[in-house]
Amino acid sequence: xxxxxxxxxxxxxxxxxxxxxxxxxxxxxxxxxxxxxxxxxxxxxxxxxxxxxxxxxxxxxxxxxxxxxxxxxxxxxxxxxxxxxxxxxxxxxxxxxxxxxxxxxxxxxxxxxxxxxxxxxxxxxxxxxxxxxxxxxxxxxxxxxxxxxxxxxxxxxxxxxxxxxxxxxxxxxxxxxxxxxxxxxxxxxxxxxxxxxxxxxxxxxxxxxxxxxxxxxxxxxxxxxxxxxxxxxxxxxxxxxxxxxxxxxxxxxxxxxxxxxxxxxxxxxxxxxxxxxxxxxxxxxxxxxxxxxxxxxxxxxxxxxxxxxxxxxxxxxxxxxxxxxxxxxxxxxxxxxxxxxxxxxxxxxxxxxxxxxxxxxxxxxxxxxxxxxxxxxxxxxxxxxxxxxxxxxxxxxxxxxxx
Length: 403
Fold this sequence. Notes:
single chain; mainly alpha; Growth Hormone, Chain: A; 2 domains; 19 helices; MFS; membrane; transmembrane; MFS_trans_sf
C-alpha cells in the first residue's frame, strides 16, 4: 500500500469504521443476485424474480436518502440501529414467504420493506471520512479513492459468494448471508461513536433538502446514467461471453472491468490534484464515453477482456470527483443525505440499465447491447457539460466560504 493510504488508515478509528463498512456493504453486490436465485428457485420464473428485485431497488432509492437525512439530523447511531433491525426482519420475512410458498404478492411486500430499510452505507462511511478529516480536507480525495477500491472489491467478491451459497448450500443461503453482513456491519458501525459525525439540526430555509442545490440537480442524473452504464455492461458482458461459447468466463470479463476501475482509483488517490473538482469530473465523463467505444467494435472474448480493462480505467476518476463535488457543494448538515442520494441514483441506474440492456440482447444480441452503455455515457457527459457552470460556480463559492 502506498504512503497516502497508509497515512489515511492511521487516522484514529479509521480502520474500525472501514472494516465495519466493508462487511455491511457486501450485501449491495449480493442482494439482487440472491433474490433472483431464491425467487426463481421457488417460483420457476425469472420474470417474477426480476420484478421482485426491481421492487426492492425502487424502494431502496426512495428510502436510503430519507434515512441518511435522519442520520444527519439525529446522528448515525440513533438511526442506524432501528433501521438495520427492520431491514433484517424484512429480509427474514422475504425468505420465509418464499420458503412457505405464500402468494407471490407477499414477496413484493417484503421486498419493498427490505428496500425501504436498506441504507446506503457507503455514504455513511464517506460522511465519517469527511468528519475525521475535517482538519485536513485535502486528503478527502484519497479517502474517496480508497472507498472506490473497497467498492470494486465488494463487486468482485460479493456475486461469487452469493452464487456459491445459493447454488451449493441452499437457495436462501446467499440472501441470508447478505442480510447477515448488513446486520453485522451496521451494528459495528453504529457502535463506533468516536468517529460519528455530530448531529446537525436542519437550518431554517433548507426544507427542500439537497435538491435546493443546483449542483446536486446536475450531479444526480449524471450518476443515474453512470449506474445505467454499469448495469448495461454487466448484462452485455454476460451475454457476450455466452455468445462466444465461454459463459463461465463472464465473471472474469466483468472482473477485468472492475480491476481497471480499482487500479485507476489507487493511482488517482495517490496523486495531489490542483485542478477543480468540476473540471476533473467532466474530464472523467469524457474519458468514460471514449472508453466505451472500443467494446462496440470488438468480437473476440479475450480481446474484450483487454479492452474493458482500459474502459474501466475511466470509472474511478469520474466517480471520485463526483463524490468530492457532493462533499464540497452541500452543507455539512446534509452531507450523508447528499452522498446517499447520488449513491442510490447509481443503484437505480444499474437496475434500469440491466433491464434495457437485457431487452436489447434479446432483440439484437450482445454486440448491439454494448451501444446501451455508450449511449448512457454520452447522455451523462452532455448533462454534465450543460450543468458545468452550475457545478463550478457552487464549487468556487463553497471554496471561498471555507477559506
